[in-house]
Each structure stands twice: as structure tokens, then as C-alpha cells.
Design brief:
The complex is a heterodimer of chains A (202) and B (267). Chain A is α/β, with parallel strands linked by helices. Chain A contains 9 helices and 6 strands. In chain A, helix 1 runs antiparallel to helix 9 (171-179). Chain A is globular, with a radius of gyration of 18 Å. Chain B has helices at residues 6-9, 22-25, 44-59, 85-95, 107-110, 117-131, 151-156, 165-175, 187-192, 195-199, 217-225, 236-244; strands at residues 29-37, 63-72, 102-104, 144-150, 177-180, 204-207, 212-214. The chains are: A alpha/beta (202), B alpha/beta (267). Chain A binds chain B through residues 33-34, 118, 145-151, 154, 158, 161-164, 166-168, 171, and chain B through 15-19, 44-45, 47-48, 51-52, 54-55, 98-99, 183, 210-216, 219, 223, 231, 233, 236. Chain B: Its cofactor is Mg(2+).
């Protein structure tokens, strides 16, 4: 029925993370031509960073109370599923990154739709995890046959180096980035590191 | 044809960083990039080739890219699933609406016969000498015309009987090649393995696109035939055109649909 993009809270403190109001604005511009995907700023507006399962719980309760933006409450309450790339599925294995109880809640109560990426083996990640194995009926593996690995890391670096990112991002997003002077420096470039020292922990 | 207003561009020459560097520009060699191909349909990957190539040439400090030209192949090339050239030209035109330096040229597709790439290069070279580029006219020095392609095309130079040796030589000697690397290819290896390419390697520019962006038109056609989304792989205006004109509804790579495809076209 609907797709929701939920940009992370600024307090996540990831390197080179620009302010959430920009990231939300850029997503909104990118989604102008979509009739079913929308951006939601609730997560980014909270006082603290929150774990994914809390975002899922919030949107689930919104769906139960109000239905989707498109259908309202007339139709049956939809199932909310987490959409991610296979690289995220792999992070479930990283020690201390996800709580086991959260992984279980995600795959048991909600469900996962995982789009494969080059160099990953999502079936293998599932087989290697008892929790994922148990709920594999609730994990949907989708394949994108085109190799389309447009990494945001690369895009930020290209922008910092003055290179073109046209046709990698929607034109409206590129225009926004230029208008607001975003991504002019890039922490992956050591020569520019002196300009980047703004007290943010990475 | 795009209509240029000289007031938009005269006197302003864009570098990779979109910063005017007045004095330096005069010493740079002006270049026009020409890409030949089916463009069946044009995809964001085709468009990226131009952006990556331009940035690469600008970063050498030696060149200034004035213009890019997309030249869709003639219908008589008779490639499987090739839709009529007037559609392919129209789709490219739509895709290029947002570009201020790349244009589509229908001359090749309008000729009575299919023609070899070197003939297309010669035609555009003579046009540049007579009229200059669409942007600058004849005021500036005649630009060098270079063939833009992916590394997969460079590899085809090795295929027996596909290219005439004299044509390969003319392309790399008289014109020049800008080759954008693709996953799974080894352009340096292709050059080293060919005496002609080796000899003119100074005129073969290898550009790298760090993102894996392998949007194959073959896959796009198949996805369309199967009713799958190609949004974000092609410009929206091209997708709308394809839907409006009912293009790529069937795909010869699907055997189940082969009975609908028997229209007498040799592949």
C-alpha cells in the first residue's frame, strides 16, 4: 500500500551526517515523482536516536490508529515490514550491534524484505543464524538484477571533489545540495581534515 | 535539436568543479564526445558515461569538453528487439532535456543504410569544422572529436571481422577514444593486447566510474516486458514515453512469448 523512508536521527552521529532537516527535505524532493513512497520525519524529530524496532513499533501503532496515508482506516490494518539491503542483514551478525530480542521482534512480529546487493549472500546469513532461520518464512529475499551500487559514500566524495553526480541522484536533490552548500568537504579526504573538526564524535 | 541561446553560454566555460578559470581555459584543447549505440532504450548508465568522461578529461587539465553527442544506430543494423529509430531518438531527446551540454543527433539513423562508426565520426568531424559546436559556433578553435564508449566496446575490437583494422586505426589515430570502465572488464589489458591500440594509447583515455552502475538496456527491456518497475533506472520522461507508445511489451529473450514476435525481422 505504501512505502515509508525514515531518515535517522542526527544523534546517531555518523560521520558526515548532515542535519536531518536537510536529509528529510532531499528525500521529499526525490519522492515528488512517486505516488506510493513518502518520507516520515518522526524518527529524526525525536530527542534521541532510537533503535530500529522502536521506529517499527511507532509506525505500526500509527497504522492501527489511522491506516495508511492512501487508504485511511477503511481497509484491514496492513503488515509493516522492514525494507533493507543485504548488507544490513549481514550486520545482524555483528556482535553487540543489535539486541537479540530486537532481531527476533523484527522478524517475528514485523517481517523483513531484503534486496540483494553485489557481494552478499543473504541466504547464507539466514542459514547462519538460528533466529533468522526460525522465521525465514517472514524474510523475503528480492533480487535486483542490475548492478546498481550507488553508494552515498561515493556520492559525498564526488561532490567534495567537484565531480558530477548527475543521473545518480534526482536532479532536484542535486540542486538542493548545491543551493545549500552541502557535502563540500568530505572526511574521507585527509587533506581536508582540518576543516572538519567540529566536535562531532564519529 | 536543442536551441542554444548564446547569452547563456558565451564566455562561460565550465570546469569539473563548475568554477570559471578564465586564463587557463585558453590553453585547453576543446573536445566533443560522440557516443554511438542502440540506445534501446537510453538509460541512466548511458548518461553517466558522458558525465564520467567529461570529469575525467577535465581532471587531466588538458581538455575542455564542449559538447556531447548521442547518435542512435540506424534501424538497418537489425539488432534483436531494436525499436524504430524515431522512438529511440525521441527517448534520448526526453532523457537529455535536463542536460545543458549533451544532445542527440539523428543523422546516422536517418541515412538509407547502416554505416560503420568511423563514417559517423567523419561526418560529425566535418560538421564541426564547418559550423563549430552548437554552443560555441565557429568562434573557438575546432574541437577534437572523440568516440565515447564503455570498456565492453573496446573489447569488441578483438572480435574477428567485426571492425576493419584500418577503421580501428583511424578511430584511435585521427579521433581518439574515451573509454569508461565497466565491471568485469580490463581495458588496460585490451590495449596491451593490441598493437594498434598500444601504438596510440596516448589517444585512449580510460575513465573510471567508481559506482557499479550496470544498467543494461537488455535487462530494462526484459523488466518492461514482465511488467516490472524500471523507475530510477531511466528518466521518468522516457518511461512515460515507453508506456504511451506501448514499446518493449514483448521481449525475444522470453521463449514463451516467441510466437508473438515473429514479424519477419532478421536478428
Amino acid at each position: 500500500m505504501e512505502g515509508i523512508i525514515s531518515p535517522v536521527n542526527d544523534n546517531y552521529r555518523k560521520k558526515d551526517l548532515v542535519s536531518s532537516h536537510h536529509r528529510v527535505a532531499m528525500a521529499r524532493l526525490a519522492l515528488q515523482s512517486s505516488d506510493w513512497i513518502r518520507v516520515d520525519s518522526w524518527e529524526s524529530e525525536q530527542a534521541q536516536w532510537m533503535e530500529t524496532v522502536n521506529v517499527l513499533r511507532h509506525h505500526q501503532s500509527q497504522l492501527l490508529r489511522y491506516g495508511t496515508q492512501m487508504e485511511g482506516l477503511d481497509s484491514a490494518a496492513p503488515e509493516l515490514k522492514l525494507l533493507c539491503g543485504a548488507d544490513v542483514l549481514k550486520t545482524f551478525q555483528t556482535p553487540n550491534l543489535w539486541k537479540d530480542s530486537h532481531i527476533q521482534e523484527i522478524v517475528e512480529k514485523f517481517g523483513l524484505v531484503c534486496v540483494n546487493r553485489a557481494g552478499h549472500d543473504p541466504k547464507g546469513y539466514i542459514l547462519g543464524s538460528p533466529i533468522l532461520c526460525k522465521y525465514q518464512h517472514n524474510i523475503h529475499l528480492a533480487r535486483e538484477p542490475v548492478l546498481n551500487e550507488i553508494s552515498a559514500t561515493y556520492v559525498r566524495r564526488a561532490l567534495a571533489q567537484g565531480q558530477s553526480v548527475k543521473y545518480l541522484l534526482p536532479d532536484a536533490v542535486i540542486a538542493y545540495i548545491k543551493d545549500h552548500g552541502l557535502y563540500m568537504t568530505d572526511s574521507s579526504q585527509k587533506a581536508r581534515s582540518t576543516q572538519k573538526n567540529k566536535g562531532k564524535t564519529s | 535539436m536543442k536551441k542554444w541561446t548564446h547569452s547563456m553560454h558565451r564566455g562561460r566555460v565550465a570546469t569539473a568543479g563548475d568554477v570559471d578559470v578564465p586564463g587557463k581555459m585558453k590553453t585547453r584543447i576543446p573536445v566533443v564526445l560522440l557516443a554511438c549505440g542502440s540506445f534501446n532504450p537510453i538509460t541512466n548508465m548511458h548518461l553517466r558515461l558522458f558525465e564520467v568522461a567529461r570529469d575525467h578529461l577535465h581532471q587531466t587539465g588538458l581538455y575542455q569538453v564542449m559538447e556531447g553527442i548521442i547518435s542512435p544506430v540506424n534501424d538497418n543494423y537489425r539488432k534483436k528487439d531494436l525499436v524504430s529509430s524515431h522512438h529511440r531518438v525521441a527517448m534520448a531527446r526526453l532523457a537529455l532535456q535536463s542536460s545543458d551540454w549533451i544532445r542527440v543527433d539523428s543523422w546516422e539513423s536517418e541515412q538509407a543504410q547502416w554505416m560503420e562508426t568511423v563514417n559517423v565520426l567523419r561526418h560529425h568531424q566535418s560538421q564541426l569544422l564547418r559550423y563549430g559546436t552548437q554552443m560555441e559556433g565557429l568562434d573557438s578553435a575546432a574541437p577534437e572529436l572523440k568516440l565515447l564508449c564503455g570498456a565492453d566496446v573496446l573489447k569488441t575490437f578483438q572480435t574477428p571481422n567485426l571492425w576493419k583494422d584500418s577503421h580501428i586505426q583511424e578511430i584511435v589515430e585521427k579521433f581518439g577514444l574515451v573509454c569508461v570502465n565497466r565491471a568485469g572488464h580490463d581495458p588496460k589489458g585490451y590495449i596491451l593486447g593490441s598493437p594498434i591500440l598500444c601504438k596510440y594509447q596516448h589517444n585512449i583515455h580510460l575513465a573510471r566510474e567508481p559506482v557499479l552502475n550496470e544498467i543494461s538496456a537488455t535487462y530494462v527491456r526484459r523488466a518492461l516486458a514482465q511488467g516490472q518497475s524500471v523507475k530510477y533506472l531511466l528518466p521518468d520522461a522516457v518511461i512515460a514515453y515507453i508506456k504511451d507508445h506501448g514499446l518493449y511489451m514483448t521481449d525475444s529473450s522470453q521463449k514463451a512469448r516467441s510466437t508473438q514476435k515473429n514479424k519477419g525481422k532478421t536478428s
